[in-house]
């Protein structure tokens, strides 16, 4: 079995996959569509981060591909519908870099409140500017968090420990942690918060959600952070509000278009503006987070390859069973009535005894792991593969 890991994925992932006898090839950067199609020839496992786009065209050209591991939080760079149609499992790491992103956000909030980047630049230029003008403590100030998922809620806890008052807004019902207060609208949050931090996902509906109208609603001289998705924010609108003084500072870690390789040139309309912190998408880029991501996603890929387990798969129904000494039939199928009865009928007609079976459904797909005694006859496997409801069939021998 072969795996292709792109974008400088942590060596821990290479080690864990290699332990299972998987041949691993790695590259430091992302590949474009044609390069990726060529590289996936004969590859069963693909590992990516945020710069690689996995389209329907790419998946169609990779018939051997069993699973895609997104060694990051987001999966919007993957055509999940196309992966599901082909029975390709997709895994990500929804929790592993949470602390790293939160710590960067806190550091940037304090840095902007004290104008540390400007003071640092002046010192390097030989200017001694000892002044309290525009410098504030974060204690007692109001933080508004847009998106109260894993990162947003963790930031809420840490910010409150610093003495900040926390508001949050999320389109889903979320339990407030500590003394955080939920706002019923984005407008309500923007009217009260002195610092606004975005932590929403990359779903298409969020594109461009923060533009001129939203910046205008923010309190005068407030601070702004975006550590989630570059396409969420209108950067020209942010620039204009910074230059006008309405926004007192901004920290931006993600951009609508980002260089694919370390060392490539970067340009932004936000460059060279006072009290603006620009970082190269490093929110989750700590040794601790990357090692944990490598371990987590590689572990999920190992479980899927070795046992068919899909716990925490982004797109396939969740099924997990104990690994034993039986042959496993992994059957991804259309979620329609009667499939299980049909599968069991095929096995019964072939005199194959079922010793264990677990089924789960999710949306348009069903996934069943069937354990049988002894080897599965080739003609029986062919019959299951040829069922009209079958999306993908794989057999793991005892």
UniProtKB/TrEMBL annotation:
Keywords: Amino-acid biosynthesis, NAD, Oxidoreductase, Serine biosynthesis. GO terms for biological process: L-serine biosynthetic process. The lineage of its organism: Bacteria, Bacillati, Actinomycetota, Actinomycetes, Propionibacteriales. This is D-3-phosphoglycerate dehydrogenase. It catalyses: (2R)-3-phosphoglycerate + NAD(+) = 3-phosphooxypyruvate + NADH + H(+); (R)-2-hydroxyglutarate + NAD(+) = 2-oxoglutarate + NADH + H(+). InterPro entries: ACT-like_dom_sf (IPR045865), ACT_dom (IPR002912), AHAS_small-like_ACT (IPR054480), D-2-hydroxyacid_DH (IPR050857), D-isomer_2_OHA_DH_cat_dom (IPR006139), D-isomer_DH_CS1 (IPR029752), D-isomer_DH_NAD-bd (IPR006140), NAD(P)-bd_dom_sf (IPR036291). SUPFAM superfamilies: ACT-like, Formate/glycerate dehydrogenase catalytic domain-like, NAD(P)-binding Rossmann-fold domains. Pathway: Amino-acid biosynthesis; L-serine biosynthesis; L-serine from 3-phospho-D-glycerate: step 1/3. Residues 328-398 form the ACT domain. Its EC number is 1.1.1.399, 1.1.1.95. It is an enzyme of class 1 (oxidoreductase). Catalyzes the reversible oxidation of 3-phospho-D-glycerate to 3-phosphonooxypyruvate, the first step of the phosphorylated L-serine biosynthesis pathway. Also catalyzes the reversible oxidation of 2-hydroxyglutarate to 2-oxoglutarate. Belongs to the D-isomer specific 2-hydroxyacid dehydrogenase family. The keyword Magnesium does not apply. One of its GO terms (molecular function) is NAD binding.
